[in-house]
Amino acid sequence: MMSDEEPLVRKYSDSGITTLTLNQPQSRNSLSMAMLEALSGELEAIASDADTRVVVLAAHGSVFCAGHDLREIREQFDDQDFQLALFHQCSKVMQQIVSLPKPVIARVAGVATAAGCQLVASCDLAVAADTARFATPGVNIGLFCSTPMVALSRNVSRKHAMEMLLTGEMISAVRAEEIGLVNRAVDEQVLDETVYGMARTIADKSGHTLKVGKEAFYRQLEMPLAEAYEFTSTVMADNMQANDAREGICAFLEKRKPDWQDS
Questions:
Q1: Which positions make up the signal peptide (predicted)?
Q2: What does CATH list as the number for 9-203?
């Protein structure tokens, strides 16, 4: 049992990797307003934390995240202002993940549904236990997963996204890997090894380079081809002036490990 003093989101940092763990297993780690505000606060702090190079988003318990807290929503059926504030807060958190100047890896064990599936899709990378399952089941309860649709449709093809949204059916981790919702579906016994192995590999890179690359990736996605090439050419030319680019190139040519300055 958790005490009342335990945080909604636990935070642990080690060797440049910060793990944020959703910590309400008794409510299936649902995204209540309080949970969303706690997660938003942690992401805001990490954004300016020079010691964090990679973020792992995990969950305590057998469910990764069941989406919005339907009991909370039922209590506020007649308060449309609250409903709008809730969905705006959720959208803010998803955009914070995308705009965070550090890569974010979802570590998924268990079920991720509705806004929980949206949370996985919003992360830059995702690794799931092969026992994990995913769904956008809002259609089953008369509340179409419209905001989860935004992240889902930017990660998988239109027809795969529409199949999940229109049927509301669960898909396996293996199927999620096939359609691109997660990077890897692995045996649960090697989930942490896979997630933190990936995180350590990324954390070993220049923090400045990761920031530049992540920002450029999401910006160019929405551009026409010629505009994307014009934009990324400028990004690369600017990146070339960074200390870490010069150090990295010299280290490669001199066959030594680079000494990153994160600038």
A1: none
A2: 3.90.226.10
Share of the chain above pLDDT 90, in %: 97
β-sheet bridge partners, residue 108: 128
Which residues, other chains included, contact 223 with Cβ-Cβ below 8 Å and sequence gap of 6+? 231
Contacts of 75-81 with C-beta under 8 Å, sequence gap 24+, read: none
**Shared fold status for 9-203 and 207-253:** no
DSSP lists the bridge partners of residue 135 as: 113
Within 10 angstroms of residue 227's Cβ, the number of other Cβ atoms is 11
Domains of the chain: which residue ranges?
A: 9-203, 207-253
Residue labelled with tokens 């090439």: 229
Fold of 207-253: Lyase 2-enoyl-coa Hydratase; Chain  A, domain 2 (1.10.12)
Assessment of whether the complete model's pTM goes beyond 0.85: yes
**DSSP assignment, residue 189?**
G
Residue showing tokens 């940092």? 13
Residue 189, C-beta contacts closer than 8 angstroms, at least 6 positions apart: none
- Rounded Cα–Cα distance for residues 215 and 260 (Å): 19
